[in-house]
Amino acid sequence: MPNDLHNFNSPQALWLLLGVPFILGWAFIERKRRAVLRFSAAGALVAGGRGLRPWLTWLLPVMRALGVTLAIIALARPQERDSRVRDLSVEGIDIMIAFDLSTSMEAADFRPQNRLHVAKDVLVEFLGGRSNDRIGLVVFSGGAYTQAPLTLDYGVLKEVVKQLRTRVLEDGTAIGDALATSLNRLRDSDAKSRVVVLITDGDNNAGKISPLDAASMAQALKIPIYAILVGKGGKVPFPSGQDLFGNTAWRDVDIPVNPALLQTIARDTGGQFYRATDRESLKKGLQEILDSLERTKLLDGGASATYREDFHDLLFWAFALIAAELLLRATVFRVFP
To answer: Per-residue pLDDT averaged across 181-188, rounded?
Structure first.
């Protein structure tokens, strides 16, 4: 255990201790100037001895001086500083998430929810666990668009994710465009750890830039791409309108996937490939991505030490001594006249 270091927050208050001797001096002067009771038969009193009471009366000014001393020390605010210094430097990663909004994300192989619903829930949960990572969002289907630039405002970002839905953009799966847009957002970042997380459920079938060309761009920028393929593959239940009773009608649809393409992109850029067949595997994939990344300092926040105030006990005993002195002076050691 590290030793605690003691210091005063307001040491200038200790100069008041120079006045404590004057309290004792004033008590001595006051005792000498006090009126005495004249008695015609003083011999009988002298024969009886002085007893302890005259000596104990000196305890009163001593109590007062000690109480004032403790109060002054408390005023100087003694503290204990933990010798362990806490680093306030902010560490984080710059992450661009490329999120697939093609209609195939409506497939319900994650029943009772579809792929889009589960992916959004896991992504919101993922954002809730971040503290210093700058995260941005690119959405894509037939084209790719920046939904949110790199930000630390996770509250706003989570609300953006919750509002995502399919059938808003031109349909398709433009993986190459999504990667190029994400890389463009990271190009000017000065963070050592920059990464693109691609979340998709299909094969590239749209866009102007091929996925392998985008991977070459990532290699040049030294930005790894982590690809997560969402879905079980093969024939999956897909909504096909409503039946006579207004319920969603389902039919099995074979949605093309290309895990080999995503594996190549991840391997060539220094990232990793994950396959998410349920909620837990998707969540695990995102966490493993974070665990594999090297963190870098984005902001230098300095250092901080923990302090504990120690004046409370001193103040208590100061008031206790002064109160006891006043009580004894008014009762047991009361002097007449």
So the answer is: 94
